[in-house]
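Practice problem: predict the structure.
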Amino acid sequence: MNNIVKNTLILTSITVISGLLLGIVYDITKEPIAEAQENTKQEAFRSVLADASSFETVEDFDASEALSLLKENGYTSDEITEIAEGIDGSGETIGYVINVMSHEAYDGDLEVSVGIAADGTVTGIEMLSISETAGLGMKADETDFKDQFKDKKVEKFSYTKSGESGDDKIDAISGATITTNAVTNAVDSALIYFQNELGGGVNE
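Answer:
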């Protein structure tokens, strides 16, 4: 019985100490991790809306309303996580960066920043997080794929596997149609929100 009590006390002590050490490590690392994530996001913002001098988070953004809007338009696997207003040197709003989380990627979620100018032109996209298959879905994070969306003013995008041309057509990544679809829908979700809540349609 004494051995049982002794072993129990030892195990309890180890558990308590381990918990305390994990807590200390978390406190030490959480701030640098948060800072690194914020730096990555700001770099993405500058990449997709290069003419902006600064970015201001849209504080009154309602994620629930945005989710309902996307669902009404058939985008049931996406959610808008953040919107930032792009400001130029004279203090004017020149566009927005809309972050969209897609839940229909092949290997988990992916998150993309979409830059949209005030006139509705997509100025670029950048991956905030992606963990698709190397050599296949991860090609979505390559410049050749992302640049297909850049400087295009369309109502929505769709992907093609036949090489069909048009500003609204995105060449699917060979062997990674699911990833292509996820990214295309995420960009379209950003456009839907912009057109309905921020800047109007492409013809306005």
